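Researcher: We plan to redesign the surface later, but first we want a full-length starting point. Tokens attached.
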């Protein structure tokens, strides 16, 4: 009658009779501790109080007793009479041990849940640190690329100035060779004063020599974005870059943006979006302003 003793012990600890019987049946009558583990793990199940469809005897691996076959009266009464009766002190002592076991199981469960919560927090912090490090690396890469672009542009600008100076010197040498020492006595040719300032204009404009363009975009919230584009890229590439990097939350609805030039102030149209940056006069560098496009 061990199962009956376990059942009574569970009932003494405050578990409903239906739950206690169900726990003993579903754990194969392996003892009070196994039944208590089941009760604590399934105490929040919506069907925990639903009765078992299979008789308790079958669930415990036993054949139906004669009392189950013959009804409430008959041989079953003799079994109940032969069941050992615990004294009040024994019953209290057994109940005390069971309550201590319940408290121990509860502490173990709370400690396990606390460890799991700490592990989840550690994983969340680790993921946050990895994401922050990735963002930092991305920012460093962008700053490094921007610095390299500035150095390259400065070197190209210095080289262009050097070519202009060399051209001026060649023009001076050619004029001196052509006119010799009589340059001061002869009337100044109409074109003689002009070559120094005009000769650079005869060369292709310096801007056309740049194959890249550095664009600084000022956002409505006061922040700015800086990126380098190819001189022949369309203005639509700049607008796409702004829409991807203007800092709004992923998945949030984003309004389309409109690009404006600062000086002179000009609002670029949809037709301008198909034109190259070089053609729009934005090479080698330019500052654009972003404004929200009013809905049509």
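Model: Full-length starting sequence:
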């Amino acid at each position: 009658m061990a199962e009956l003793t376990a059942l009574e012990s569970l009932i003494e600890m405050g578990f409903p009779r239906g739950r206690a019987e169900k726990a003993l049946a579903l754990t194969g009558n392996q003892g009070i501790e196994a039944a208590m583990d089941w009760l604590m793990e399934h105490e929040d199940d919506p069907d925990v109080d639903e009765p078992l469809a299979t008789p308790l005897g079958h669930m415990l691996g036993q054949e139906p007793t004669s009392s189950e076959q013959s009804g409430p009266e008959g041989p079953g009464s003799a079994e109940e009479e032969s069941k050992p009766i615990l004294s009040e002190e024994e019953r209290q002592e057994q109940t005390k041990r069971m309550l201590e076991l319940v408290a121990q199981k509860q502490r173990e469960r709370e400690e396990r849940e606390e460890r799991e919560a700490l592990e989840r927090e550690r994983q969340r912090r680790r993921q946050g640190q990895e994401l922050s490090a990735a963002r930092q690396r991305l920012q460093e890469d962008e700053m490094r690329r921007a610095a390299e672009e500035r150095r390259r542009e400065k070197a190209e600008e210095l080289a262009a100035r050097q070519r202009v100076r060399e051209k001026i010197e060649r023009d001076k040498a050619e004029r001196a060779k052509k006119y010799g020492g009589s340059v001061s006595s002869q009337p100044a040719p109409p074109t003689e004063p002009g070559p120094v300032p005009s000769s650079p204009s005869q060369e292709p404009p310096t801007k056309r020599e740049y194959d890249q363009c550095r664009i600084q975009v000022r956002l409505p919230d006061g922040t700015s974005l800086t990126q380098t584009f190819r001189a022949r890229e369309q203005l639509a590439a700049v607008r796409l870059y702004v829409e991807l990097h203007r800092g709004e939350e992923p998945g949030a609805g984003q309004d389309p943006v409109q690009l404006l030039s600062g000086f002179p102030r000009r609002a670029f149209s949809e037709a301008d979006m198909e034109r190259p940056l070089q053609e729009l006069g934005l090479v080698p560098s330019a500052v654009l302003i972003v404004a929200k496009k009013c809905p049509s």
